[in-house]
Amino acid sequence: MYKLLCPDQVADSIGEIDIVSLADKGFKGVIIDLDNTIIPWAGSAMQPEIIQQLMHFRTQGFKMCLLSNNRPRRVQEIAASLGIPFVSKATKPLKRGFRQALELLKLPENQTVVIGDQLFTDVLGGNRLGMYTIWVMPLSTEEFIMTKAVRCLERIARAVLKINMDKSKDGR
Ligand SMILES: [Mg+2]
Predict the structure, then answer these.
(1) How many whole angstroms separate alpha carbon 60 and alpha carbon 40?
(2) Region class of 125: left (phi > 0), else alpha (psi between -120 and 50), else beta
(3) Which residues, 6+ apart, have CB-to-CB distance to 156 below 8 Å?
(4) What is the mean pLDDT of residues 118-142?
(5) Which of 1, 135, 139, 159 is the most buried (most CB within 10 A)?
(6) Residue in 114, 72, 76, 65 with CA at minimum distance from that of residue 93
(7) What is the pLDDT of residues 93-119, one digit of tens each?
(8) Spatial CB neighbours of 165, under 8 Å, sequence gap ≥ 6
(9) Is the CATH number of domain 3-161 3.40.50.720?
(10) Is residue 105 classed as helix, strand or coil in its secondary structure?
(11) CB atoms within 10 A of CB 155
(12) Distance, CA 95 to ligand 1 centroid (Å)?
């Protein structure tokens, strides 16, 4: 369980991720969470820096897919604005949604990165399939009441894990 909750990387935001180094590691796709990863929870406008970073992924040759537990309408709208595929009602951390996203990307687990703001859905789910996981800080402190409860657990986990970037799994 401990290893399954260790992200391979931690970043303050998606904008801080070094895309070139991911490309150098051989990654070709990214599965990206929606709420509080690229857009504030309940918000509908993406920050320009985030749009720019997503475009940077594209110019570096990455295929992208949104993976969200949120309802189809919201996810579809944002995916359409970015011109990328999506999986909604993904029931993360279950493997099903991650597998659907991999199918849409037509990529294997070991060439795909998972980026998300929640340890117990995004990171745990990605790790369960052996994918490279990047944990980002949430964009907004406003969120679903259950998520707020989970954040307390995340804070404890963060303190316990004392995450050592890039050394947390198999020395990657
Ligand atoms: Mg999220």
Answers:
(1) 25
(2) alpha
(3) none
(4) 93
(5) 135
(6) 114
(7) 999 999 999 999 999 999 999 999 999
(8) 9, 10
(9) no
(10) helix
(11) 11
(12) 16
